[in-house]
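Homework help board

Subject: predicted structure for assignment chain

Our instructor gave us this sequence and asked us to write out the predicted structure in token form, then describe one feature. I got the tokens but I'm not sure how to describe them. Can anyone check?
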Amino acid sequence: MIIPSIDLVGGNAVQLVGGERQAIDAGDPLDILDRFSRVGEVAVVDIDAARGEGDNSELIAEMCRRARVRVGGGIRAAEQALRWLDAGAEKVVIGTAATPEFIGRLPSDRVVVALDSRDGEVLTHGWRVGAGRGLFDDLERLRGLCGGFLVTFVEREGRLGGTDLERAARVVEAADGASVTIAGGVTVADEVAELDRIGADAQVGMALYTGQLDLAEATAATLTSDRPDGFWPTVVVDEHGAALGLAWSDQDSLREALDSGRGAYRSRTRGLWVKGETSGAAQELLEVSVDCDRDALLFRVRQEKGFCHLETRTCWGEDGSLGRLARRLRLIREERPEGSNTVKLFDQPDLLAAKLAEEAAELASAETRAEAAHETADLIYFALVKAAAAGATLEDVASELSRRELRVSRRAMTS
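My token output:
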């Protein structure tokens, strides 16, 4: 699959040719991240840190909060790597410092070793210094110690001349089961598809920034269909993963969805359609995923109103999830129905605080399964009222829990 890349210099997203000459200043990296993250994980590379010329730490911390990112560039101490993992980075990309001793201090499945090479020789210090070692020597030395490799063919980087597919295949073989991401020269969708076929992801920068390759084209290139019309079944889920319904996609609808950030699909009778344009049941597209067999899509969306044409939340009727409760509380906060006890809680923060303390104590003393379930339900209700009162959504809560799950450093539990 495609891994879009955001290289940072002085707080801006840039593209370099051969790791040296700046060819593009693309501006605000957060806007770019919002778009790129619609296809999944994004590579964020701190060029300044890699060169030893400052860093973009505060910006990258915000990017970790916003999307699924892998962070690289200038990580030369295990403490730095741990900080990024604790900040919510899916993975850290380690270059010059990637020794068995260094990697041994980190969770190996979240470490990607960056091997930057020019004509087969490994480079260090922001691609400026030859290490005197061969690419395949380092692959053999480090495989088994990390979750994956990022291999950049620096002589092709930023030149839009195509990547070296033959060498990429050799890298996949040498990685011996570790994941492989290839960067350097990937320009057209067919290369993304071929890398996917041989078992590698394609990290792409320049081709995306210049418009020679778009996200939909790159994603579609890896897909197959056994239907005469070539459509791909598209499972639509909400931000919590609850299924809303089934739709269909083709390359044009996928492009519209990824470009606009809306739920766009291919109707078998009406052609291209954007969810909610006429009904008001709009969708914000959060992320598109491809299934393991490369013949179906998953759209994760933020859904307004009901998804179904029958005006229910899902095509299987109303849902009974915590999401439904959270949406109901938000509606009560907005509409303020007369006589509602929930409105009373919104209006009296001291009362809400007292109820939270009371329910937490009751849950702490629960002994049976039934008691624990009952008191947990009470506490969750009051906690969601508190969150809604502050403008926090259930999605915000889930995102915070997900970031905590990614932490490596653990605080001691004290009484």
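Reply (TA_rk): Your tokens look well-formed. For the description, you could write something like this. The longest helix spans residues 369-389. That's the kind of observation they're looking for.
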